[in-house]
Model the fold of this input.
Amino acid sequence: MVTASLSRRVLLRASFVLLFGGLLAALIMLTAAARHSEFFGRYYSILLVVNILGIVLLLGLIIPNLWRLIQQYRDRRLGSRLTLRMLGTFVGIALLPLVVVYYFSVQFLSEGIDSWFNVRITKALDDARLLGRSTLETVKQDSLQEAQQIASTLAGEHDLVAAINDIRQQHQYDELTLFEYNGQILASSSVDQTSLLPDRPPEALLNKLRSGTYQINLKPLADDSIKLRILVPVFGQSVTQPLRILQIIRSLPLRHAKLSASLESAVREYKQIKFLRQPLKFTFVLTLSLIALATLLMGIWAGIFSSRRLIKPLRDLAMGTRAVADGNYDTTLPVTQRDEFGILVESFNDMTRKIQIARDETQRAQRESDSQRTYLQTVLSHLSSGVMSVDLELRLRTFNPAAEEILGLDLNATKGQTLPQVTNAFPQVAPLWELINQGINDGQPEWQGEISLNTARGRRILIIRGSQLCSSRATDDGFVVVFDEITDLVQAQRNTAWGEVARRLAHEIKNPLTPIQLSAERIRSKYLHTLPADNRDALERATRIIVQQVDAMKQMVNAFSDYAQPVLITTTNVDLNRLASDVAELHRGKQQPEIILKLSNEIQPVVADANRILQVLNNLIINACDALQLPKQPDAATPSIEISTHPQEDHGQHYVELTVADNGPGFSSKLRSDIFEPYVTTKTKGTGLGLAIVKRIIEEHGGKIWASTTQPHGVTVTVLLPVSGNKAKIHVESILSHKGQTVS
Amino acid sequence: MPAWKNCNRLFFCLLLNLLLSAVSRADFALTEVSATLSATHLTVSTRGKLSLSDHVKEAVANGIPLDIVIYLRLKRDRAWLWDPTVAEWKIRTRLRFHALSARYIVEFPAQHTSESHSSLAKALAAIGNTRSFNLPLPKNLEFNAKQYDSGQYYVTAKILLDIEALPIPLRPLAYTLPSWWLDSDWSSWSLHL
Done:
């Protein structure tokens, strides 16, 4: 391909050289022809046509190239502006002297040719011509007299041939002929021995002679010499002798011949030149114009060629630079010249090669960095611990999904904000901010603490660990905070503690209760009839109270026992809407608050133990009914309980969300965080284990439960249960006892 | 005088000459061509009417020689294709004015002869009315000359002013001015044996 390009370039240059050389040669030949060169003069017209064709060819080369250049300039192609500028400079440099030279040459030619002619020369030549003619007249008269004398001598001659021959030789005539009157040749003598017949006079001359006029006729020849033809009559010695005609053809005397030839030649040439004055100017101006035009066009073409040749490396460099700027670092330019441009191109290629190597290194490092970052993000996203990083100005930089999950917040909107700003947006994370602030202010490289947050899904206990980040870049300095939710752990600990309490209650309290109850009944039956009537009532009341309180204590102990003991649950696909409808139907009545059902048809069956879920629903409705019987708010509406279901999705898991909301007086925020703790209740009666058991059942089903305040007042308990097909963990081995419970 | 004025003048003269040439247009014509074929020669006699435009007459009067050429072609008649040229000749005559004798010289370069005439009309008549020019046949045709049939062969002729023989400065003008375009059409003439 390089060879083909090279040969094409060589061919192109050879064509240009041939064209320019040919045109130059044609111009030189044309100039030589215009100067009356004999050889080139024969081909003047061809040379003229060749030159015009050469100029047309040049125009044919230049016009499309100029047009293309202008188009490129309009299209703002790289290098076109510089090429045009250089071309303009070249043409300007060539045009200015050319126009000056052309102008003065034309003027010089015109004035020079005009100066050849003046009136005196013209008049002198005219006078010379008149003088020549008068001289010729004299020669003619002399010749006529001489001819008449010869004619008189011939009148008496008998040997005409010999006489004529002698006379011709004596007078050095070219030809001497004697004719009869009717034109028949009688005798002739000629210097030209090759001619058989003498030069006959034209019949018109003979007729004129017959009419009595002597004829002296000039006969100019091709070599500018002049011959005289003289016709005179030859009278006889007697009237009886016939009339004859003598013709003498002779050249002018030598001196006269030379002078006349020279004069004729000079006059003819002068008249020719005078006549050709304007055509001569036209020819010279035409030749000069062709030379000027050809020179100008060759200059323009050379300008185009040179500009392109000069600009090409620059244009290539500009294009290469633009390509590099666009990110194409493997751009290499062909080195076509061995001059400074070639060095520049080689340097460019070297630079792009180094940039490419550096780019590859950077890309490789970037890929490694991306890979590590992706790996780190993957690790962070799969961490159950929440991780957050802040810069030195406490701006939130990064966080993982677990952080959002644990805090129950969407932190994407707060990315880049300072922690105080985040706290303003989410007041529930104020304890977190306070702990971080305290840790930073202490100046320790690491710190640790535990906080409790009230989130939308209930209270969460977090353990926080913070440490200072020091990196090579100042912008990467800051702090990293790692936190884990230990709510379940704390809850488990509490559950264990409560289980232990229940076990001890069952062991330590429940056992003595039966003897106490039996003893109280025995005292009443043994001593009731023996006591006086006024003491009998007191005994009967005291024993009855003992029995009743013992029963109550038994129930309480049984409840604790139920809470502490594990129980098996049997899961099936349960239609939560049907269960909710059934439970609601059980609680409908005149003395009961209104129950409103808003059940979604789009929910899927949940995997659950139907009896346990019934227990949960029953407890929640009873709790709501109890709450509605508490002292009402002044603006309280008609007591009602709203049960609703709808599908929910959380972290890719599908749930059914069940809410039980009442419009009762509600509870305080402090109570809200502990509502599912054992032995927490707002009622005067009851163990405070109802909601704790509910929560335990829900958690054993892999679900979640939390309580929130309903505006303007009331409580909403939300339950999330995984739908059938989820891979949510369900502890099949439930530890909850099967005993039916009501919240008391 | 400025050069541009000279150029303008030249251009004006050229334009004027062009117009005058169109008005004083002259032309050449061959009224009769007699061609007789012999074994080795073609003998030709012509009659022509030649007239010169004023511009050309002025040129002749100013000593410009004119070359007038009679083109002759021997052609063979063919039925379907074009007629091929068997042989062709040029009879060149030169006309010039002899200022000293005020006569017109007609030269016949081929014969190395010349004539002089007292008037231009006579000189032109002498050029047009050539008599018994012997034109040699090409050697490869000599053997078949006897077999020529007058119906099969014919002669075409044309007479014209040879611009290429004019002085060089005059040629561009002669090519551009119609007054210098002096020629006849090609005419066909029968061949005599």
